[in-house]
Design goal:
Oligomer: single chain
Length: 269
């Protein structure tokens, strides 16, 4: 039991930044449904070679605008408007770039994603995602790990509760009862998260995915707040128990550094 409890705690410390991200994104779902900002539009010089294919032009535009987060370029990114002009539509974590190739220039429409939308994109990006940007690929692997850690912590948390019912301080009871109150919701969101990340692995009910994707007034803010309570109470319990402080602090620092550096680095472009 002690080993399970230690793994439970250390896994939480290592992935704390991601757990906080899930909580914040859940709460932000309350206002995530608001309208998008107006795009910023500009034109700049761009010459198309006589023998260049649409995909080659798209690759040069990506390089020119530094849109590595939008790579690799797919066929659905490339299209043509009613005037048969090449139109490139790139969606990425930081928003959207719609580029129309004109004679000797390009017209760029950039829509910047809000911080909340950016964080929402990060929280759903897992190892099944394939990015041409190494930062995003590193994030995908790390977030995949955090997703499975949360699933493992849910299971181990139930096991610990069954073994230690009635024991503990006020903070331990806060941690325990918060987890119990959210257990059903947490299980639904975790199973649907795995299903959305790996659609060939798990076949969750359509209602579970619909529930997970709901914005505005939904269960997501409730779960988000609960995750923040669990993170805060768990952090307090780890520190006050005075056990595994050095190892825990090292894991906490490593996890926060990895997640924080990647998130800020990608946001900067």
């Amino acid at each position: 039991m002690e080993l399970i409890a230690r793994i439970h705690t250390l896994a939480g410390l290592l992935t704390l930044a991601n757990l906080l991200l899930y909580g914040v994104v859940g709460i932000a779902a309350l206002w995530d449904a608001r309208g998008k900002p107006a795009p910023v539009v500009w034109e700049q010089a761009f010459t198309v070679g006589a023998d260049e294919t649409d995909r080659e032009i798209a690759a040069r535009v990506v390089e020119l605008l530094r849109l590595s987060l939008a790579t690799p370029v797919h066929a659905f990114n490339i299209g043509h408007d009613a005037q048969h002009r090449l139109v490139l539509d790139f969606y990425h974590a930081n928003g959207r770039h719609k580029v129309t190739v004109l004679d000797g220039r390009i017209r760029v429409e950039r829509t910047r994603a809000s911080v909340w939308k950016y964080l929402s994109t990060l929280h759903v990006t897992t190892a099944a995602f394939r990015s041409g940007d190494r930062r995003m690929q590193w994030w995908a692997w790390w977030n995949e790990f955090a997703m499975w850690c949360l699933l493992a912590m849910t299971g181990s948390g139930v096991w610990i509760w069954l073994a230690r019912r009635g024991a503990g301080s006020t903070w331990r009871r806060v941690h325990r009862y918060s987890a119990l109150a959210m257990l059903a919701l947490l299980a639904i969101y975790e199973v649907s998260a795995v299903q959305m990340a790996h659609r060939t692995w798990v076949k969750a009910g359509a209602w579970m995915e619909k529930l997970h994707r709901m914005r505005g007034v939904s269960f997501a803010p409730v779960l988000g707040m609960g995750l923040l309570v669990l993170a805060a109470s768990g952090l307090y319990l780890w520190w006050t128990l005075r056990r595994d402080r050095r190892v825990g602090a090292a894991l906490l620092a490593m996890g926060c550094t990895v997640a924080g550096v990647l998130a800020v680095w990608m946001r900067l472009g």
